[in-house]
Write a structure and sequence with these properties.
This is Major facilitator superfamily (MFS) profile domain-containing protein. It contains 27 helices and three strands. The chain is an all-alpha fold.
Length: 609
């Protein structure tokens, strides 16, 4: 999953970042303390994939109802939409520090509610609380880091938030694997997230407010000059711990100019949110920026990434790996690749450009999704047949009722059995040979396992299963360096300064809403279309997304914000659909010459007839 703001890094910034933080460790303390919010963001969005396997075992209604599984997963995303919206208001009203601490309280409450949940509805309630925290952390943590970092290493420090998000997802898979043999399994998996929230809350108590937020916040209350001076002195004392003495005065002057500019922008935009939104949509530059910003955010989610991050153990089971522990171990690989991809993006995004990396990423994603479609199609086609004798005589009343009533039971295979919402008990000698189609119940499952056979209810044994894991890994490798991080970088650069909050907010809401749609419908789609059909559908969405990225998203690498604004003002067209500057000059010259010739003809005396 790959949600949270990441500013553009420069490959030279990382060396400078190391030197600066070595001399001033307080800077890294600020960044890592706030970055725990990103870690919690990643952990809480990733942990549910493994926990869901064991929740299904404890609550029969969850196991039988795909919509209930989807709701448990997606309610955190629904909460994040609300959390991001209110988080913006809390940031402006009370500051970054308070926002992070409120998010920690929400994380902690959500973790405790889920860990103690006596019923599925309590898990859903806990997921909503966690979602509120995720929404607030996704925007506040990078903002705090950015405003409390020296400008020359800001990109590198803010980029650590993106790494901590993917690192949190990787950690969640490790925790899931660690608790597979512990009593309470999913309760520990979900509840342990409360510990980092407590740690961050305590750390934030000893840290200052962002100096920029501090000044802007108190300015909004119209304090008298003396109290304003005290607030400025407090901000200066914070900056003294971040900047060397020779840079301090310049930073204070820059901060003063920034605040004054913000006051002017606020006056120009109007006081109400409705006025600001109206002004944004009337501005052609902002509209074109939103075309690009919303396009990349929606395309990111409809690539299907969060189906992999939220449901990867389930997808691995679709491929024929029945064991929960095996499914989570294999899923750990995909999560690890996602974290590595974030580092690759930091290294290459300023070298090769945003647009190019996204286009290459989308081409790789489409190729992997098409291959996964073929693999899952082969898994379904070549699944083991049903042994009629074993299915009818395995145990008393154990046979699948749909199989018993079938007009042509000889045509059934394992996949037919699972589609009928029954279970497949594999052959004890060779799991790829015909087995039994049995009713889906805990007693019959236990009876199958007592005979030292493997029980399948989500996927069938297949020799193609390992290929599914390989191409899931390649899918992540294609996704993470490009579509994983670049959409957030584009959204940090594509809007004029005075509209950056509004534009970025609209794009972020588009991201979370798309995330909700995908996560809420994935299991339903797999039941309606099959795994192969679902991956093919995502490949089609990616093809559409690739066209939109090619047409609407300009390259912003190396451009100043003013240059990006001019680019959007002129109107962006893909290079293949616009003439080169030299051709344009030639055409203009020809047009000018033609116009002059026509003028001369009109003014020159014509001979009489």
């Amino acid at each position: 999953m790959v949600e949270g703001g990441i500013s553009k890094p420069d490959k030279t910034e990382f060396t400078e970042c190391w030197k600066t933080t070595w001399k001033t460790p307080y800077i890294m303390r600020l960044a890592l303390s706030a970055g725990i919010g990103g870690l919690l963001f990643g952990y809480d969005t990733g942990v549910i994939s493994g926990a869901l396997l064991y929740i299904r075992e404890d609550f029969h209604e969850v196991d039988r109802k795909a919509w209930l599984q989807e709701t448990i997963v997606s309610m955190a995303v629904a909460g994040a939409i609300i959390g991001a919206g209110f988080g913006g208001w809390i940031n402006d009203r009370f500051g970054r520090k308070i926002s992070i601490m409120v998010a920690d309280v929400l994380f902690f409450v959500g973790a405790i509610v889920m860990a103690l949940a006596p019923a599925p509805w309590m898990i859903i309630l806990g997921r909503i609380f966690v979602g509120f925290g995720v929404g607030m952390a996704s925007m506040t943590a990078p903002l705090y880091i950015s405003e409390a970092s020296p400008a020359r290493i800001r990109g590198a420090l803010v980029s650590t938030n993106g790494l901590l998000i993917t690192g949190g997802q990787f950690l969640s898979y490790c925790i899931n694997l660690a608790f597979t043999h512990v009593t309470g399994t999913w309760r520990w998996m979900l509840g342990v997230a409360g510990l980092p929230a407590v740690v961050q809350f305590v750390l934030m108590l000893s840290l200052p407010e962002s100096p920029r937020s501090d000044i802007v916040f108190w300015r909004g209350f119209g304090l008298p000059p003396l109290m304003k001076a005290q607030v400025v002195d407090e901000a200066k004392s914070i900056l003294e711990r971040i900047y060397p003495a020779e840079e301090l005065e310049d930073e204070m002057n820059a901060l003063k100019i920034s605040v004054e500019a913000e006051k002017a922008d606020e006056h120009a935009l109007g006081d109400s949110m409705a006025q600001k939104l109206k002004g944004a949509f009337k501005n052609v530059v902002v509209r074109r920026g939103l075309y690009a910003g919303v396009t990349v955010q929606v395309a990111q989610q409809f690539s299907g990434i969060n189906t992999v991050m939220y449901y990867s153990p389930t997808i691995v089971q679709f491929a024929g790996f029945a064991s929960n522990k095996t499914a989570m171990a294999l899923s750990l690989i995909t999560s690890g690749l996602n974290a590595v991809g974030s580092i690759v993006s930091m290294t290459f995004v300023d070298r090769y450009g945003r647009r190019r990396m996204m286009i290459i990423s989308m081409i790789g994603i489409i190729a992997c999704l098409v291959v996964l479609t073929i693999i899952f199609s082969q898994v379904a086609t070549h699944s083991p047949n049903i042994d009629h004798f074993e299915s009818m005589h395995f145990a008393l009343n154990a046979s699948c009722s749909s199989y018993v009533r079938a007009n042509d039971p000889t045509s059934w295979n394992c996949m037919s059995c699972l589609r009928a919402e029954c279970g497949f008990c594999a052959n004890g000698v060779n799991k790829y040979t015909p087995g039994a189609c049995l009713a889906l119940s805990k007693d019959i499952k236990d009876s199958c396992r007592e005979k030292h056979r493997t029980w399948y209810k989500d996927g069938c044994p297949s020799r193609f299963g390992f290929l599914a894991v390989v191409f899931l890994g390649l899918y992540i490798i294609s996704y993470s360096p490009g579509m994983g991080t670049v959409p957030w970088i584009v959204n940090s650069e594509i809007y004029p300064l005075r509209y950056r909050g509004i534009g970025g907010g609209i794009a972020a809401v588009a991201n979370w809403v798309s995330n909700l749609i995908v996560s809420q419908t994935f299991l339903t789609l797999t039941k309606a279309l099959g795994s192969a059909g679902t991956f093919l559908l995502f490949a089609v969405f990616c093809g559409i997304g690739l066209i939109f990225i090619f047409w609407f998203v300009p390259e912003t690498k190396g451009l100043q914000f003013e240059e990006v604004e001019k680019l959007l003002q002129a109107g962006f067209r893909p290079e293949a659909f616009r003439k080169s500057s030299e051709e344009t000059k030639v055409d203009k010259g020809k047009g000018k010459a033609k116009a002059e010739a026509e003028t001369d003809t009109e003014t020159k005396p014509q001979p009489s007839s």
